[in-house]
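Q: Here's a chain of 171 amino acids. Please give me its 3D structure as tokens.
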Amino acid sequence: MRWLAGALLLALCASLHAEALRPWTGGAAPGLELADLDGTAHRLADYRGKTVLVNFWATWCAPCRAEMPSIERLRRSMEGRPFAVLAVNVAESARVARDFAEKLPVNFTVLLDRDGRVTRAWGARVLPASYIVGPDGTIRYSYLGDLDWSSDEVRARIESLMRTGPQHAAH
């Protein structure tokens, strides 16, 4: 009987995970232009044609730290495909963000939103806050809180967006 209850609980958790990414209804993607850890400017518009995970995080945020390895696994699984990760560090110094990224390590782009202006524009009131931007530059999904970004369900949704391409993405 315990086995059955455990199996049902596991199935419930898996079904909740499949619904983790919420379809976006908040309108157009706000502007995003920030410098990375080396001072190079990145604009969301530069990633047109790719599916992009925009993740707002901070080193003091335990759920943010917990999900970073799964974001790196997702990035690695998508290497060579039209996919990018823009991890926006909120209101911390380049040194703090760099030290954290090097310890994990992560090989995705870390951007610095020192004054929180971009974070506020995106409505990221809770950390971590994540948005999936389609190849056409529009936000398709959002998620607040930590998530296993390397799960099959999440990867399937991202791969589906990549297949649609910039001209044929559903609105």
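Q: Can you summarize the key feature?
A: The first strand starts at residue 22 and ends at 23.
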